UniProtKB/TrEMBL annotation:
This is Dioxygenase. Pfam families: RPE65. Keywords: Dioxygenase, Iron, Metal-binding, Oxidoreductase. Its cofactor is Fe(2+). Binds 1 Fe(2+) ion per subunit. Its EC number is 1.13.11.-. It comes from the Bacteria. Belongs to the carotenoid oxygenase family. It comes from Microbacterium terregens. The keyword Membrane does not apply. The lineage of its organism: Bacteria, Bacillati, Actinomycetota, Actinomycetes, Micrococcales.
């Protein structure tokens, strides 16, 4: 591209609300804050001791009008809970691109995963896409800000200062590590993947496994049947499940300044299943037309069947991406319902049995992580109608309504004590109240969510959206 062509794509950025999910718009917040002793409502349980981390996107500089929430700079929130008191902190993730933009005092990296429209002053960075904005991942005493196209950013869990980019001490070959990982509750391993691991945009993907000490022990490659999106995946005690979603990457479109992904309504999602103790050459692909998934709730193997539970929509759940023809898609078709997919490993069908759970409309699923990869009873998720819990034995869904102008973000489960029964504990989540520009960390008893929050720690502003978070038990 010539300089003239590049400049023709360049328009002076402004502060805009940013297109988000469900057609919502988010205002940049841009605040780094410390609040000692939040105002408390209700009572924080004595046993609830630790730090809740949330991470989400928050543009620090003015953007193009069509910039999207996924391109926001990572901003961490921490809520340190001890003896009924809560201290709050927020800090940006100091990525290479964040630092370059701060030095330039303007946005340099204008479009999501596409350098074609970068500011002429933008430096060429290996970690150009690393906003560190997706998952506050607490793993065995260490905190990482994850972003699926890049390497993790290690964060000091007490000060929230950014330490360095982490690549398993130089061992990781993949240029990407998924924002969603799975911790094996038996071995303590960190299972992940790297989609577009070589930045070839051909669907090349790495399976990545680290031991409980964050030492890389496995990295194997395969190529997905088409260059789609994989944001999350599933692991059971016996199998690994890769899910390729119908959002196409097209390098030619990107070169013209177009979006990184485009929804392909004619393409089914593809689900590749391999034995955990096998190799990526053993992957068997299944197809699931009309099942579009961003996140996985949990998965397990039962005999010759693999069961995967996930929010699934019939259409495009990323409404800020057009379809492959450049047309906007129907926001309604992006609404997800909690869905059970059953894959018969010995049957002849190349499609799973799909069961949508009546009354379970929502996304951002979480579980009691001690029951990951195995048969489990409880799933938690947020919907437009508030916080929800599904009982997989009875298919009963319980709800606590939190509707607009309240905005409920993803919840995280914390067990009451180490050996507590599944689901016996608390759900922690950030709630913003847009009309009053106030926010809070709210705590529910996970077995009594319909009774409402038992405690709130208030902050005097409405935070940015938090995508994904985790809880560090004990005093850090
Ligand atoms: Fe996610």
């Amino acid at each position: 591209m010539t300089i003239n062509e590049r400049q023709s794509l360049y328009v002076q950025p402004q502060f805009h609300t940013v297109p988000s999910f469900y057609g919502r718009q988010f205002e940049p917040v841009r605040l780094e804050a410390d609040l000692f002793d939040c105002q408390i409502e209700g009572v924080f349980p004595e046993q609830l001791k630790g730090t809740f981390f949330g991470l989400g996107p928050d543009h620090q500089y003015p953007t193009f009008e069509d910039d999207i929430i996924l391109n926001g700079d990572g901003s961490l929130l921490s809520w340190r809970i001890e003896d009924g008191h809560v201290d709050f902190k927020s800090r940006y993730v100091q990525t290479e691109r964040f630092t370059a933009e701060r030095e330039a005092r303007k946005k340099l990296f204008n479009a999501y995963r596409n350098p074609a429209r970068d500011d002429p002053d933008a430096p060429g960075l290996m970690q150009r896409d690393n906003t560190g904005n997706t998952y506050a991942w607490y793993f065995n005493g260490r905190l990482f800000a994850l972003r699926e196209d890049s390497h993790p950013n290690e964060i000091d869990p007490v000060t929230l200062e950014t330490k360095d980019v982490f690549n398993f001490d130089g061992a990781l070959k993949s240029t990407a590590l998924s924002a969603h990982g799975k911790v094996d509750p038996v071995t303590g391993e960190w299972w992940a993947f790297g989609m577009y691991a070589e930045r070839q945009w051909a669907g090349e993907c790495a399976l990545i496994v680290a031991d409980k000490n964050a030492k890389l022990i496995r990295e194997e490659y395969f190529v997905a049947p088409y260059p789609g999106m994989m944001h999350d995946f599933a692991v059971t005690r016996e199998h690994v499940i890769f899910d390729i979603q119908p959002f196409r990457v097209d390098e030619e479109r990107m070169k013209k300044g177009g979006q990184f992904y485009a929804f392909d309504p004619d393409q089914p999602s593809l689900w590749g299943i391999m034995p955990r103790d096998g190799s990526t050459s053993d992957i068997r692909w299944f197809r699931a037309p009309g099942v579009v998934c961003g996140h996985i709730m949990n998965a397990y193997t039962e005999g010759k069947k693999v069961i995967v539970d996930a929010p699934a929509a019939p259409g495009n759940s990323f409404p800020f991406f057009t379809d492959v023809a450049g047309n906007p898609t129907d926001i309604e078709l992006g609404n997800a319902t909690i869905t059970r997919l059953e894959f018969d490993l010995v049957g002849e069908s190349d499609q799973p049995k799909v069961t949508r759970i009546h009354g379970a409309v929502g996304e951002m699923p979480k579980i009691d992580d001690r029951f990951a990869m195995m048969r489990y009873k409880y799933g938690f998720f947020r919907g437009a109608d508030g916080l929800n819990r599904i009982d997989w034995d009875t298919l009963e869904v319980r709800n606590y309504p939190m509707v607009a102008p309240n905005v409920l973000h993803e919840c995280t489960f914390v067990p009451r004590y180490e050996g507590a029964a599944e689901g016996d504990g608390w759900l922690l989540a950030v709630v913003n109240h847009a009309a009053t520009n106030r926010g809070a960390l709210v705590v529910f008893d996970a077995m009594k969510i319909e009774e409402g929050p038992i405690a709130k720690a208030k902050i005097p502003y409405s935070t940015h959206m938090t995508f994904h978070g985790s809880f560090a038990p004990g005093v850090l």
